Amino acid sequence: MLNNLKPATGSRKERVRRCRGLGSGLGKNGGSGNKGQNSRSGAGGKLGFEGGQMPLARRLPKRGTGFKSHCHIVYACVSLDQINNTFKDGAVVDTKALIAKGLVKETLYGTKILNGKLEKKLTIKANKFSASALETIKNSGSTSEVVE
Questions:
Q1: Which architecture characterizes domain 76-146 according to CATH?
Q2: Bridge partners, residue 129, by sequence
Q3: pLDDT tens digit string along 91-103?
Q4: Long-range contact pairs involving 140-144 (C-beta distance under 8 Å, separation at least 24)
Q5: Residue 90 to residues 10, 25, 26, 84, 100: CA-CA distances in angstroms?
């Protein structure tokens, strides 16, 4: 019957309750040796504790935190390919126009124009231009203005 089922003999063992007196069957020290830190209850100490020695995590140098200069300027970069595909002939391309078209999110420091193909005549106003982008703009008949 189901109500008479029991596990096979020897397959289940009771948990050993260490250090619970002489009557527990484990002797005077309850199976934890003689004296010392690890014979006490709650033994083992903190994770990473090395007995007073400087722990490994504190001996190693701090890496990966990086350094962020407060002078570093980040520009939103736009390629001439993107400008060529987005704007029509004769348009004025500046930071506001780039934000309106969704090519650039609002920037703190302005925009930088990078090289690509330009087949239209545009007026491009930006904070910075790459040297190759300036050459491409000049060759296409467009004009470039550096805005501060």
A1: Ribosomal Protein L15; Chain: K; domain 2 (3.100)
A2: 113
A3: 999 999 999 999 9
A4: 142/118, 144/113
A5: 91, 96, 94, 11, 17
